[in-house]
Amino acid sequence: MMPVIWLIVIILASAVEMMTTQLVSVWFAAGGLGALIACGLSAPLPVQFLVFVLVSALMLAFTRPVVKRALTVKKTNTNADRYIGKTAVVTVAVNNVVGTGQVNVLGSIWTARSADGSVIPLGSHVLVEAIDGVKLIVRPEDRK
Questions:
Q1: Can you give the CATH number for the domain in which 85 is found?
Q2: Residue range 32-74, pLDDT digits in tens
Q3: What is the pTM of this model?
């Protein structure tokens, strides 16, 4: 009966792994394979379970950091990043509640939203804090 249980563990862990992209259960499939081999060698149930836990833990400890580094997506800066920290002029009043707002920054027109939710009137100077999709997140510029 135990070989069937270990096969089910392997199949379930593999199925979960196929449905995700984060390497969450492949380690348990390897542990299940180790336990299945131990079962095939007539090891008692506590030994099979110990093999499952040890192989899973060792696979996790030694391979996850390497795999994680290989799968890490590096952020690529775009030309849009150049707008962050720049001063813009409001061309359509920024009002998050009604969903309006437009600014001109470096000669480009962008949809804008207020960082703090305040209404920013037409003609105001604002500072670009961030980019959220196709919208600039802005705050009123401190003019002295």
A1: 2.40.50.140
A2: 999 999 999 999 999 999 999 999 999 888 887 777 777 777 7
A3: 0.49
Could you tell me if 63 and 8 lie in one domain?
yes
Q: Are residues 135 and 83 in the same domain?
A: yes
Which amino acid makes up residue 62?
F
At 34, which amino acid appears?
Answer: G
- Pair 43, 63 in one domain: yes
36 and 97 assigned to the same domain = no
Q: Domain limits at 87?
A: 79-140
The three-state DSSP-derived secondary structure of the chain is CHHHHHHHHHHHHHHHHHHCCCCCCHHHHHHHHHHHHHHHCCCCHHHHHHHHHHHHHHHHHHHHHHHHHHHCCCCCCCHHHHHCCCEEEEEEEEECCCCEEEEEECCEEEEEEECCCCCECCCCEEEEEEEECCEEEEEECCCC
Average pLDDT of the segment spanning 89-118: 94
**pLDDT computed for residue 144 by the predictor:** 44
d(CA 93, CA 112): 9
Q: What is the chain's mean pLDDT, rounded?
A: 89
Output phi, psi for 19, to 5 deg: -85, -10
